[in-house]
Every structure is written in C-alpha cells, then in structure tokens.
Amino acid sequence: MRVSPYNIVMMTKLKMMKPLRDSLQGLLLWREMTEVPYRTLHPCAADNCPELVPTGQKYCEKHKKMHPEKARSASARGYGRRWQKASKAFLASQPLCEECLKRGRYAKATVVDHIVSHRGDPKLFWDRNNWRALCMRCHDKKTGQEDSHPVYRY
Predict the structure, then answer these.
(1) Residue 134 lies in a domain
(2) Over 70: is that where the pLDDT of 39 sits?
C-alpha cells in the first residue's frame, strides 16, 4: 500500500476502531476505508457525453460500439474480393481524379471514395451513386478531414 497523508489519517482513525475491526462488519469497513482508488475517472471522448469512464477507457458503453478499439481488417470492414473487383471496374470507367479535374489538373484516380461515409451501412457502401474516383492525395485529404471531425447520428 502506498503511504500518503490520506492513508496516515485513515490508519490513525481506524486504530481507534480496533474492536470494530475485529468483527466481520468492521473488517469490511476497514477494507473500504483503507483502499485508495488508483484510477481516476474522466469524461467520455464522444462529443457532449457526460458519462465518466476509467482512465484505461476512452468511451462509455454507449459510444464504445461506434468506436471499436481494435482496428478491423479491410475485409472485415467490407473491402474484400468483391469490393476489389467492383472498384477496379469503376476506376477503369473513370480513370481521372474528380477533385483534381475540378481544379483543372489531370491526375490518375487510384481510389474509389464513398462520397458520404458509409460507417458500416452495406446499402450505402454498395450504392454506386455514392462512389467517386479520386487520386490518393485527394482521398487522404478528404478522409483525414472527415475522421478528425466525425459527425454522429443518433
């Protein structure tokens, strides 16, 4: 046990309670009074969430589902063989980056981007009207902005 001023004060108070400590109820009280919490609580990292979570966690139980701690593989997120075939065919039909074309530049499109982030929704994931061809530079810029300022719908 770490010795802190709090512990010293509590021990002196509890020494006076020695007869009580010898009983079972007193022992439980003794343990409760001498234990010092080692993890502080902090607010959930989700926007405007008042829930408090322990130091090791980032999100409360309600928001943990929206933010998986372990990074899932690409195929687990839906980008398997079927997606590779579909995106390759889409890039063959639209070989230039749409964002670069708006700026008057010509760049080869290498990534099929979801205009509206699908966040696991299969209907939105496979909707071809939600796809556009981008170069890696434009895709990384767009995705970085979206990930740093996510929009949640409850």
Answers:
(1) yes
(2) no
Looking at the fold, whether 99 and 143 belong to one and the same domain comes out as yes
Residue 65 lies in a domain: no
pLDDT score recorded for residue 38: 61
CA proximity to 66, closest of 49, 41, 79: 49
What's the pTM value of the predicted model, to 2 decimals? 0.55
Alpha-carbon separation of residue 99 from 88, 91, 120, 135 (angstroms): 19, 14, 24, 8
> 4 is written with which tokens?
């802190």
Q: How confident is the model at residue 63 (pLDDT cuts 50, 70, 90)?
A: confident
Rounded distance between C-alpha atoms, residue 14 and residue 24, angstroms: 15
- Report the DSSP beta bridge partners of residue 114: 131
Domain extent, residue 85, equals 81-148
